[in-house]
């Protein structure tokens, strides 16, 4: 029987589960489909109920996971198949390359030379990033990755662009790394911590999301609140960069609605009140 546990999803739930298991002596395989662990919590400004800086609480846990001898972090990875039974699972995984080796020093020299500009998912699309980028400063594991789906050098070694590799002082951008690899791991148990996705509020046209630039999701508002966000923490209207005189918060969007989700999200009231307090601050 394997003493390993597979944790699928590297948000705060998966991170904490991995740390607890690893501290108890289990081997953990933490699988995250994105380039970094951290999930939604890393993008929040302050955390209810203490209103401490969210990433300040989470970043030490991310580092601990990255350095823990009992935890193997597989980023850019997804589970393809789980065979076997409780106590003896055999897991097949697919991991996509980031094309940056562990010698990356996070110097950032590669970013300005990259000609590809994309919406930055971490800033809820309100800022830009390059095709070679770090998801956020405290990202684990490693830091910089090449988003090969948007890189001009796609497929790898097509070579119409090599700017980032030429600019990289330790020469750690390597397009000869295979695009994808298959991995097999044994695990005695599987924990699924794949978190949540925001619904698309543009589906509810009465709120004007997508039609009016000043209608934001709560996640976008979090990025406006944070000093590390696209406006440096200034609450400004995306349409004209001016401070709004009043803000309307619409709760339960898409929840308890037969057309979308019949259930209550059970947390939009909590974070809306938090955001109201922060906006007043
Ligand atoms: C606007 C807003 C404000 C909030 N404010 C607060 C607050 O102040 N205080 C508070 O306690 N909570 C708050 N929350 C709630 C909090 O963000 C969540 O409870 C918490 O982040 C959930 O963590 P999680 O790990 O379960 O999920 P997530 O953060 O969603 O992480 C899931 C992870 O799993 C990965 N994943 C998904 N599918 C797969 C797959 N198939 N394979 C591999 N990986 C996968 C994802 O990429 C992601 O990294 C807020 C939420 C929102 C939307
Ligand atoms: S190869 Fe060119 S397009 Fe691709 S990440 Fe590097 S600089 Fe950007
Ligand atoms: S230039 Fe190289 S070492 Fe510097 S951040 Fe980019 S990949 Fe990392």
UniProtKB/TrEMBL annotation:
GO terms for molecular function: iron-sulfur cluster binding; metal ion binding; oxidoreductase activity. Pfam families: FAD_oxidored. Its cofactor is FAD. Keywords: FAD, Flavoprotein, Iron, Iron-sulfur, Metal-binding, Oxidoreductase. Residues 95-125 form the 4Fe-4S ferredoxin-type domain. Transmembrane segments: none annotated. The keyword Nucleus does not apply. Belongs to the HdrA family. This is 4Fe-4S ferredoxin-type domain-containing protein.
């Amino acid at each position: 029987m394997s003493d390993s546990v597979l944790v699928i999803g590297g948000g705060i739930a998966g991170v904490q589960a991995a740390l607890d298991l690893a501290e108890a002596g289990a081997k953990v395989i933490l699988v995250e489909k994105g380039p970094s662990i951290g999930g939604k919590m890393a993008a929040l400004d302050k955390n209810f109920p203490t209103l401490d800086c969210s990433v300040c609480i989470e970043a030490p846990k991310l580092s601990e996971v990255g350095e823990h001898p009992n935890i193997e972090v597989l980023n850019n990875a997804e589970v393809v198949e789980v065979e076997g039974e409780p106590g003896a699972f055999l897991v097949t995984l697919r991991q996509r390359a980031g094309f940056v080796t562990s010698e990356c020093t996070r110097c950032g020299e590669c970013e300005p030379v990259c000609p590809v500009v994309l919406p930055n998912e971490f800033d809820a699309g309100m800022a830009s990033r390059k095709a070679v980028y770090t998801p956020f400063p405290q990202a684990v594991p490693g830091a910089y990755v090449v988003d090969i789906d948007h890189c001009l050098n796609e497929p790898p070694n097509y070579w119409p662009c090599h700017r980032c590799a030429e600019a990289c002082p330790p020469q750690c951008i390597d397009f000869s790394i295979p695009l994808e690899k298959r991995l097999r791991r044994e695990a005695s148990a599987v924990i699924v911590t794949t978190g949540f996705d925001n619904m698309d509020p543009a589906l509810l046209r009465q709120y004007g999301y997508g039609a009016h630039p000043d209608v934001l999701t709560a996640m976008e508002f979090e990025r406006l609140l944070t000093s590390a966000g696209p406006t440096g923490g200034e609450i400004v209207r995306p349409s004209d960069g001016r401070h709004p005189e009043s803000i309307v918060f619409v709760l339960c969007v898409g929840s308890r609605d037969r057309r979308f989700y019949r259930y209550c999200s059970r947390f939009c009231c909590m974070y809306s009140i938090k955001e109201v307090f922060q906006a007043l601050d």
